[in-house]
């Protein structure tokens, strides 16, 4: 399998009886993802969106062998849901929910880390390996299978770049949305580490944005470890004024931290090209993969 | 959400952190009355800007007459572009030492971090640039909170006065408590003052609340409206929109924070100036799209609107219906360019065909078109 999600992925949906949870459960099933269970406390024994519902993740795991959780429960309860999944032995927890208090995320990151569970998100679109599994909310029909790994802090920009890849006759190995919050479980560095060992990935597209220093940390890791796979980066929010939170809770330039200049410089120092636009990113990737000439990328 | 200094100090006092005696005033009369009671005072403008002192927003007053004059000079007037609605009248301290103490979120460590510096009273960003070695940081394990020995280490490393150490440690513990109990993303005391008589006291206070946690902080949530400084942002947030006011003339609406940010970048790159950031979010209905147009047009500088939509859970036809409804009874006519891709985009584009709206095949083309139309 590419990375994180694939044919072996067995999904339990936390918050399966909610509007979003239900809709996306059906979408994931339609794509062929093995969604094996749902969890809503108090609704155990019923069936929702075609999957059996349990009262707890522990029961769901025991009955169905689920190894991956996707979370749609509302923000006040999502931190607890992450911890419940980790305690039930789920190896990978993907939290789609947006709006978790940062204190809850800090606690959940500590809790999952102690139990060896990987957390992706919160406030992310999920992860998808085209042709194998979609554990997320991305529109599946824009994806093609291919060799480009995608990791991004933004959902819609991920769709934008995947669409451009498809138009350019290129495809995706695995696409990972890590989320737009200030504190997140899995970072750019973590995902680049996974792509490094993945034979199905030849090039990585990294979509960063203003705020924090996760991009700088990833670039520094690439430089320090002599990262071999080509990485093409893009930084969103280059025209954003300092001190303003641009939609994502984590997208804010505070003082000297989180500026686009610092991020672009870091990638340049690591030898990773940074595209000025997503079209340019895809053109660079096409060049690296030796894409046939004359393939048009609309502007 | 940012609290004003006087609000932050109320929270400090509730948690047992020593603060100067003081009173908030909204009129010169109130300021004079407060000074009458307090004696020698400092008059402090309550606005969310750094470098308040240098800009004339902190003034010493030896008498109530002087306090009234200072309050009169500040109230209702702009300080670094922001109107001053409150002044804080506070007893003047006999300052011996000025320190810096704060707790905030460390995104890299993924924990809270406590920061201490003996270079208090100046903007911490300046210290970080000129003397990064003068800031000591302590990562805090969320499972245990700060431990006594760690706080002793922090105080020692920062080079704080030994005699004041115990008082400072107690305050450090309390600001962490506030961060957890009140869901703060920043609690900062700068300066933390050691007075001539040896008392440790929070002479200033900064307090940022995690917006995501306001649902469980009803007392703080009440202060929200008051904390908004930009009237357009205040109105947009009241209507539930994710909106940031900028200083250009092209209104920007899109779905998803990253996509909207990138749209601003593309417009800027093509020589235009965005008037705002507005994210309609995922799965927006026609009604909220119509509302988005209304909000963007509240800004009198807006000469045109660019829609950039890449539908995932957002449906193109739904957005198109919203645009049509919004333009039908628009407060004033401005050109609109729509770029639409993704879920049900084709249906959406069909709905917009034959109207006065301009369509664009991609975001770069869309940016160029709206710039041409608003020139």
Could you give the distance between the termini of chain B? 36 Å
The total tally of domains of chain B equals 3
Contiguous uncertain segments of 5+ residues of chain A: none
Structural class computed from helices and strand pairing of chain A: alpha/beta
The most extensive contact between chains is: A-B, 61 and 58 residues
Average pLDDT of chain A works out at 95
> From the 3D coordinates, which CATH architecture of the largest domain in chain A would you assign?
3-Layer(aba) Sandwich
Strand order in the sheet with the most strands of chain A: 3-4-2-1-5-6-7
Distance between the termini of chain A: 33 Å
Overall shape of chain B: elongated
Radius of gyration of chain B: 25 Å
CATH superfamily of the largest domain in chain A: Succinyl-CoA synthetase domains
Note the main sheet of chain B: 7 strands, antiparallel
Got a strand count of chain A? Answer: 13
Oligomer: heterodimer
- What characteristic shape of chain A results from the CA principal axes? globular
Q: Please, how many helices of chain B?
A: 14
Please bin the fraction of helical residues of chain A.
25-40%
Main sheet of chain A, how many strands, which sense, barrel? 7 strands, mixed
**Number of separate helices of chain A:** 9
User: Superfamily at the CATH H level of the largest domain in chain B?
Assistant: Succinyl-CoA synthetase domains
Structural commentary:
The complex is a heterodimer of chains A (299) and B (375). Chain A is α/β, with parallel strands linked by helices and 299 residues long. Chain A has 2 domains: 11-120, NAD(P)-binding Rossmann-like Domain (Rossmann fold), CATH 3.40.50; 138-288, Rossmann fold. Chain A has 9 helices and 13 strands. Chain A has helices spanning 19-31, 57-64, 75-87, 102-114, 155-167, 188-196, 214-225, 260-269, 278-288; strands at 11-14, 35-39, 47-48, 51-54, 68-71, 92-95, 118-120, 126-129, 133-136, 145-152, 172-177, 203-209, 231-236. In chain A, the strands form 2 sheets. In chain A, strands 3-4-2-1-5-6-7 form a 7-stranded mixed β-sheet, with helices on both faces. Chain A is globular and about 55 Å long. The two termini of chain A are 33 Å apart. In chain A, 60% of the residues are buried. Chain B is 38% helix and 26% strand. In chain B, the strands form 4 sheets. In chain B, strands 1, 8, 9, 10, 11, 12 and 13 form a 7-stranded antiparallel β-sheet that branches. Chain B has 14 helices and 19 strands. The model of chain B has no long low-confidence stretch (mean pLDDT 94). Chain B is elongated, with a radius of gyration of 25 Å. The two termini of chain B are 36 Å apart. Chain B has 3 domains: 21-91, 2-Layer Sandwich (Dna Ligase, domain 1), CATH 3.30.1490.20; 95-221, ATP-grasp fold, B domain (D-amino Acid Aminotransferase, Chain A, domain 1), CATH 3.30.470.20; 232-374, Succinyl-CoA synthetase domains (Rossmann fold, 3-Layer(aba) Sandwich). Chain B is of the alpha+beta class. At the A-B interface, helix 4 and helix 5 of A face helix 4, helix 10 and helix 14 of B.
